[in-house]
Amino acid sequence: MLTGERYKVITTETKNYFLGLYGRAPGQVDLDVMARATGDETSIKSRPADRLEPEFDDAKKELPDSAKSVEDQLSFVLFPAIARDFFEAREKGELIPEPLELGSAKGPATAHELHLAPVEFNVTVHGETYHVKVSGSGRKTDGRKPYYIRVNDKLEEVSLEPIQEVLAGVPESQETESGGKPKRPRPSKPGDVAPPMPGRVVKILVAIDDQVKAGDALLIIEAMKMESRVPAPIDGKVATILTAEGDNVKTDETVIQLE
Predict the structure, then answer these.
(1) What does the pLDDT look like over 226-238, one tens digit per residue?
(2) Ordered structural domains, the chain, with CATH
(3) Which residues neighbour 93 within 8 Å (Cβ) at sequence distance 6 or greater?
């Protein structure tokens, strides 16, 4: 419940599940949630794979020269934007893990250092070591706050209910331009649209001056290998689009402004 309302944002994968695109559900589904997810669309009755158009050969035509293997081709078909960035970094020899931020090496740690929560660290459990990096956080609901962490570069969502808190260095600050100003403003008005979770913009569904109604999908973001449609919070006109397809966005950033 990152948005404060259950099922306010329903992922594309959840919608497709209700439509039968992943096969028949093993049991009875909630019809109210199904109606909310599918809208006017009708569930299919046929075999889902029979409805798929061949796309592998067409996708291969768009492959960058840096895609060498069959695994590269499959990665590009599934996640074109992410795969392209990966191929380019690999080609340039820039696939180097970021170093962990270390505390002061001079003498004993200060009180400030002792009360800073690490934002990137290695943790060893039963002999297995995992690289963990805190990527961001969502809005607190019912005393719990969602955090988005990368475990061995795989994005996961965890929910924390604090029992005892100290000053923590959690990376919730916005990206900045070279001049030091935030790349995107924080939401402050009813028409300011922010994503419910950090992710990458897959597709923008509206244009400047488009008229939209509350609940209309404005853009699609991908997070944790799932796509989510970001709805309009109010009726209005699209005044500003502050992001582009392929951008990484955060929960405290305004990506579209309605008026």
Answers:
(1) 788 888 989 999 9
(2) 12-51 (no CATH), 56-92 (no CATH), 111-160 (no CATH), 192-258 (2.40.50.100)
(3) none
